[in-house]
């Protein structure tokens, strides 16, 4: 049996015929003409000629139906061709009972009418889509359910109460906007419902949704105050709760598939509420417009920081620059924090009167010596610093920092820290008194300029201890300390040490344990960042190792050491783990100076005399007196016998205008030894890779009139001064093959008022 559909250019229904329930096509044994059912009627020509149309009383007529049918195609059974859709919008219809006979309709649209009864839908078993919006319907699903009904639109009607829809198992979309519903119920059995809209109703509570497989839920314009009873709707992807009275976002934390959230025009006042949706990985769109939270300063940056997965906030795209700015503001990387800290202190210091500090050296090649012990909380760095300064008190003094925390048991004000209030601490910041500050565990810590100057006035090197943030900040300054990292490798021992102190909370101990990895990672990812790394699981062994490292720095060795070299302890890490990054810089600097010297044009006698005069005036301005040995720059020149004699007599060993000597070919660093600086200074104790050494026979570490203290050590004379022995090139840094040689420590460091001219 074959089916021959009518050609597209032939009319399906005569012009004077109104089509009713269906249109059938002819079969091979039947006439090819369209079969007209009994419900199809004709009008008399007399009625048409009279021109008196039927008065419009809101009742649907077959003429109107015939003009609104469309979508001709196979019926649901597939045995015939029918019109499957009917659309009659905006006709002020009140009675559509005529549609009882249209059993093959699959789509019915009757919006913007005055319909109150939909009982005719009960006779449409194949109906899939129903749009009855903008009518006067008061009964909720007042018809026998079509078996396959999927989408229903009852918006803008007069419904006020729901009923059970257990028979509508195929229902996928339901729109009930602009009605008068007060609660949600009867939807629990709609196992296929994925889109539900109940905007602009009178709903006060979120309940009755059960475990519906919803993907989109719209509850805009209701009276909801609390988000609840939706944590089991784990399939939800889009949620619209705008124009309600919601104050908290609690209740959304389990919606892990949520991608869009609209909370416009609510009562959210605290950006911290975003913590409830912080862990939603797929959340891309958030709208908090017209909420009190938008009045907060930097609201947008705070929201972007807390919800970094967002791509659209308040209907504006979230740019990559905003995400970077948000992170830098609320959780900046340590490098950013250090840079800001240095910039802040530099600005405040520039606002103060500029003076010449006691730590200022006459030569750029010899920075003020400092030793920094870095490590996590309670690793023992403060105790080691005190012991080191006590044993090597002729070389080091403890730099006392400031803090806003209270003293722990056994700590003394002015010995361990300067304890100040937070207000005093910030006043000191604004006064430009700090070099670096950090905030750790809710307290402020800072290294003041005066702490270093007190040590420098004694002619000693400053020894301080600090956390990782302090190291990063101090590296931004012009100081060039030696950095020794003290890191615990046994987490259990370190945790026991924290607990034995009985000073820290559980959160503080967990934070301290987690920060150990940050130190290890920084040292691993940036070789050479620390000059030495010492394990501090055993403080006794750590101190022995630290003393050995300091001896290497100072160019000292134990008596009877033989050739003057000693192996580094096993628990200090140098060599491959800490690359000697300064070797290459020294070579580059020497090569650059050599090239510049050869390329520079020769200076005339007038230029030389003028330069000498300017330097002479500069020295006089620094000291307020005629220039003496105290102000002679530490040039890298070989110290001859005559030069040494001249220096002791208070004369200049070399003219200021003489150019620096060319570096020795095929060497890693200069081997020339500078003249010993005058009494009253400790410049060069921990100079970074200057290729300098202690001067023999100067009585290092003694006060005038006191016997020399050697701590069981002897000073190594400069290799360049030993006849027949040439000093091997050294970078002055642990880990190199050659022994580090450092600037000398002259005698008489602790004089109260250094005399610029030797006696």
What attributes characterize this protein structure?
759 residues, 15 helices, GK/Ca_channel_bsu, single chain, disordered N terminus, alpha/beta
Rg is: 45 Å
Class based on secondary structure composition and strand pairing: alpha/beta
Number of E strands: 25
What are the segments in which pLDDT stays under 50 over at least 5 consecutive residues? 1-55, 559-568, 574-589, 627-685, 688-759
* General shape: elongated
**Rounded mean pLDDT score:** 76
- Give the helix level as a range of percent: 10-25%
The neighbouring-strand order within the major sheet is 1-2-3-4-5-6-7-8-9-10-11-12-13
Count, helices: 15
Give the termini separation: 132 Å
- Main beta sheet, described? 13 strands, mixed
Q: Classify the beta-strand content into a percent band.
A: 5-15%
Quaternary structure classification:
single chain
Pfam families: Guanylate_kin (PF00625), LRR_9 (PF14580)
Organism: Anguilla anguilla
Region (Disordered): 36-64, 559-585, 595-614, 641-759
Keywords: Transferase
Care to describe what's here?
By secondary structure, the chain is α/β, with parallel strands linked by helices. It contains 15 helices and 25 strands. It has helices at 45-50, 62-68, 299-306, 320-330, 334-350, 381-391, 422-430, 449-457, 468-474, 491-501, 506-525, 539-554, 581-599, 605-623, 641-648, and strands spanning 69-74, 81-87, 107-109, 129-131, 151-153, 173-175, 195-197, 216-218, 238-240, 260-262, 285-287, 312-313, 316-317, 370-374, 396-398, 401-403, 417-419, 434-440, 443-448, 461-466, 482-487, 532-535, 556-558, 572-573, 713-715. The longest helix has 20 residues, at 506-525. The chain starts with 44 loop residues before the first helix and ends in a 44-residue tail after the last strand. Mean pLDDT is 76; it is low at 1-55, 559-568, 574-589, 627-685 and 688-759.
């Amino acid at each position: 049996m074959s089916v021959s559909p009518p050609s597209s250019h032939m009319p399906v229904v005569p012009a004077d015929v109104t089509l009713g329930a269906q249109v059938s096509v002819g079969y091979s044994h039947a006439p090819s003409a369209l079969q007209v059912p009994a419900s199809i009627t004709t009008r008399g020509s007399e009625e048409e000629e009279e021109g008196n149309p039927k008065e419009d009383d809101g009742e649907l007529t077959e003429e109107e139906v015939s003009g609104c049918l469309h979508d001709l195609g196979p019926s649901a059974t597939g045995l015939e061709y029918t019109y499957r859709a009917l659309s009659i919008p905006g006709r002020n219809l009140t009675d559509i009972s005529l549609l009882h006979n249209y059993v093959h309709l699959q789509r019915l649209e009757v919006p913007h009418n005055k319909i109150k009864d939909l009982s005719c839908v009960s006779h449409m078993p194949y109906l899939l889509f129903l749009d009855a919006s903008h009518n006067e319907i008061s009964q909720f699903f007042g018809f026998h359910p079509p078996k396959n009904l999927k989408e229903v639109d009852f918006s803008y009607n007069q419904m006020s109460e729901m009923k059970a829809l257990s028979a509508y198992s195929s229902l996928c979309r339901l729109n009930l906007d602009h009605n008068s519903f007060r609660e949600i119920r009867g939807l629990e059995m709609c196992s296929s419902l994925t889109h539900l809209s109940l905007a602009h109703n009178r709903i006060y509570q979120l309940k009755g949704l059960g475990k519906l497989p919803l993907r989109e839920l719209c509850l805009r314009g209701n009276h909801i105050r609390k988000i609840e009873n939706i944590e089991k709707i784990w399939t939800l992807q889009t949620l619209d709760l705008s124009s309600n009275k919601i104050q908290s976002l609690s209740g959304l934390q389990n919606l892990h598939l949520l991608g869009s959230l609209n909370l416009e025009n609510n009562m959210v006042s605290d950006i911290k509420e975003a913590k409830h949706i912080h862990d939603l990985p797929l959340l891309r769109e958030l709208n908090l417009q017209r909420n009190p939270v938008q009045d907060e300063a930097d609201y947008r940056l705070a929201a972007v920081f807390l919800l970094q997965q967002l791509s659209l906030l308040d209907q504006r795209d979230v740019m990559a620059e905003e995400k970077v700015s948000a992170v830098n503001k609320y959780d900046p990387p340590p490098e950013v924090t250090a840079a800001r800290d240095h910039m802040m202190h530099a600005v405040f210091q520039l606002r103060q009167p500029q003076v010449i500090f006691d730590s200022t050296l006459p030569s750029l090649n010899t920075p003020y010596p400092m030793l920094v012990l870095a490590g996590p909380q309670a690793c023992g760095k403060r105790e080691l610093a005190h012991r080191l300064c006590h044993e090597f008190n002729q070389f080091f003094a403890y730099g006392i920092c400031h803090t806003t925390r209270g003293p722990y048991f056994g700590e003394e004000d002015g010995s361990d820290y300067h304890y100040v209030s937070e207000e005093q601490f910030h006043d000191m910041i604004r006064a430009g008194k700090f070099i670096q500050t950090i905030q750790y565990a809710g307290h402020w810590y800072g290294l003041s300029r005066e702490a270093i100057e007190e040590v420098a006035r004694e002619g000693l090197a400053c020894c301080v201890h600090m956390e990782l943030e302090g190291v990063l900040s101090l590296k931004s300054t012009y100081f060039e300390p030696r950095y020794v990292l003290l890191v615990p490798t046994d987490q259990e021992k370190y945790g026991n040490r924290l607990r034995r102190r009985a000073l820290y909370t559980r959160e503080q101990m967990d934070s301290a344990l987690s920060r150990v990895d940050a130190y290890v990672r920084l040292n691993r990812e940036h070789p050479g960042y620390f000059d030495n790394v010492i394990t501090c699981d055993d403080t006794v062994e750590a101190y022995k190792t630290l003393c050995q490292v300091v001896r290497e720095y100072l160019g000292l060795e134990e008596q009877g050491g033989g050739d003057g070299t000693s192996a580094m302890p096993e628990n200090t890490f140098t060599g491959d783990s800490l690359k000697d990054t300064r070797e290459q810089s020294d070579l580059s600097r020497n090569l650059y100076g050599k090239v510049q010297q050869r390329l520079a044009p020769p200076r005339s006698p007038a230029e030389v005399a003028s330069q000498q005069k300017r330097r002479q005036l500069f020295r006089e301005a620094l000291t307020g007196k005629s220039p003496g040995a105290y102000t002679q720059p530490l040039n890298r020149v070989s110290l001859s016998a005559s030069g040494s004699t001249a220096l002791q007599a208070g004369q200049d060993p070399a003219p200021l205008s003489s150019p620096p000597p060319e570096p020795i070919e095929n060497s890693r660093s200069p081997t020339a030894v500078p003249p010993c600086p005058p009494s009253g200074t400790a410049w060069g104790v921990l100079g970074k890779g200057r290729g300098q050494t202690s001067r023999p026979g100067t009585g290092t570490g003694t006060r005038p009139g006191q016997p020399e203290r050697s701590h069981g050590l002897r000073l190594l004379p400069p290799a360049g001064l030993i006849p027949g022995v040439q000093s091997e090139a050294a970078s002055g840094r642990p880990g190199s093959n050659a022994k580090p040689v450092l600037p000398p420590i002259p005698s008489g460091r602790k004089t109260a008022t250094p005399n610029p001219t030797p006696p």
